[in-house]
Prior knowledge:
- This protein has one helix spanning about 1-15; strands spanning about 25, 40-45, 50, 60-65.
- By secondary structure, it is α+β, with helices and mostly antiparallel strands.
- The N and C termini lie far apart (about 40 Å).
Amino acid sequence: MRLHRSFAGLLVSLIFHIGSPSSHTNTLFSFESLWPQSNRTLVSPGDVFELGFFSRGTSAIGIRT
């Protein structure tokens, strides 16, 4: 049953993210991650802060305001 739920969650996540070169969300599920290659960010309520991997000089992780 856990495998079925995980697969269903992954499938729903993929459906929502297909076709978008980058995306942001304010919820990160246990089966999701913020890899530099995913072009995904985690955004605070009200879009005040954005957490993710950004190419800025030699740093690859950052928080934007």
